[in-house]
Amino acid sequence: MTKHETLQKLLETLPTINEIFDSESAVLKLGDDPIIIVGDIHGNLDALNTIISQRNAEKMLFLGDYIDRGIQGVEVLHTLFKLKIAEPDNIFLLRGNHEDKHMNKHYGFLDEISRDCTAIELLQRTFEKMPIAAIVNESLFCVHGGIPGVCAIDTITKENSFEYLWNDPMPYEGLHPSNRGFGIFNFGPDIVKEFLEMNKLNMIIRSHTAVSSGYAVLFGGLLISIFSCPGYNDVNDAGTYIIYSNDTIHLHLLENTEESEELK
What we know:
alpha/beta, 31% helix, 22% strand
């Protein structure tokens, strides 16, 4: 299909996908079944197709940033929305900071769809319905960006999600303004520890930050950052996704090599 034809097919899915997202809460509560967790895709259809082709668990959780920067955002969204509609109880799509029309105007997606403002407004309504976070096995807090501080997860709403989409971890204690922009903060290991203790969780899994190795394990294993778009900043940059099964994190590199580490 041409880009225009794929966009039209994507728009045709919106009424159905909107109903599904409306039925889902801001924080998904997922069980202890094995699950694949995927970080930023950014219009890299080859990476997405590779992950799907290697799928060895029924459940898949995507952490956002499906579009912008890459050249096949339309195809990525169409693939994911079709998959979600076909398997609404197995496929889960969180919102990232690039699921936003203002970002799309500056980072490529609006140009990819030939500056179709009607389409971008329709997609924005869909983006605003997407879940913000997920809890896996009453243990893992999964989110695109990070946390706004030490807070209870039942305070998270789809309308008040900005910092969960934008904030980043840092090696220094406390909560400090980020150079990403106004209203965005960096949070330290003490904030993560207290957040996990308050909510009786063991670990945060997030994406949002490109990592040359594809992943980073931070704060003594309290937080893992993954990025699933290989070659994002450099042709040699890796991409990684996670398979979580039996309380074990398996880190899978998209170059078909694998590294596993058990974190409980």
